[in-house]
Amino acid sequence: LHSSDWWWKMQDKHPKYSTIVPIICASDKAHLTNFSGDKSIWPLYMTIGNIPKDIYRERSTRAWICIGLLLTIKIDNIQSHIQWRAAIHHILWPLRTLGSQFIVCSNGFTRKCYLILNGWVADWPEQYTIALVKQNRCPVC
């Protein structure tokens, strides 16, 4: 993320001496038990893109935080997709209201930081859910 053209393009759109804080979210459905009807949950995680990948990939650094747990529902119609997206919207709403904040950086300077949702890490079935596309269908049709 640090070397991508996206970063420089976004930085150029903001005032001098400010910085962007790319927000990266992740989700992965987790199986809980077979004993009471195949229960599972859907944890949502968040990190920031300013952390180097060799740090945020290590479990011991705790660079990812759990921001929510969703109950899993069988997503087979458009209403279920809308409910899932409404839950995500509710969880991520505080990021939108923050917008930009003055933060003291590690070098001691205070900078205006702009929070931007940059990416979502998910496996293939979850990407279908996030994109509101039915599985095994053409995403254009």
Describe the structure in your own words.
The chain is of the alpha+beta class and 141 residues long. Strands 1, 2, 3, 4, 5 and 6 form a six-stranded mixed β-sheet that branches. The model has no long low-confidence stretch (mean pLDDT 79). Helices cover 28% and strands 34% of the residues.
Summary, kept brief:
By secondary structure, this protein is of the alpha+beta class. Helix content is 28%, strand content 34%. The protein has four helices and six strands.
Layout of strands and helices, then pairs:
Blueprint: H1 5-12, E1 18-27, E2 30-33, E3 39-48, H2 53-56, E4 65-71, H3 78-98, E5 100-104, E6 110-121, H4 124-130
Strand-pairing-aware structural class: alpha+beta
Shape: globular
Strand content: 25-35%
Q: Can you count the helices?
A: 4
Radius of gyration (CA) equals 18 Å
- State the distance separating the first and last CA atoms: 32 Å
Q: Spans of 5+ residues with little confidence (pLDDT < 50)?
A: none
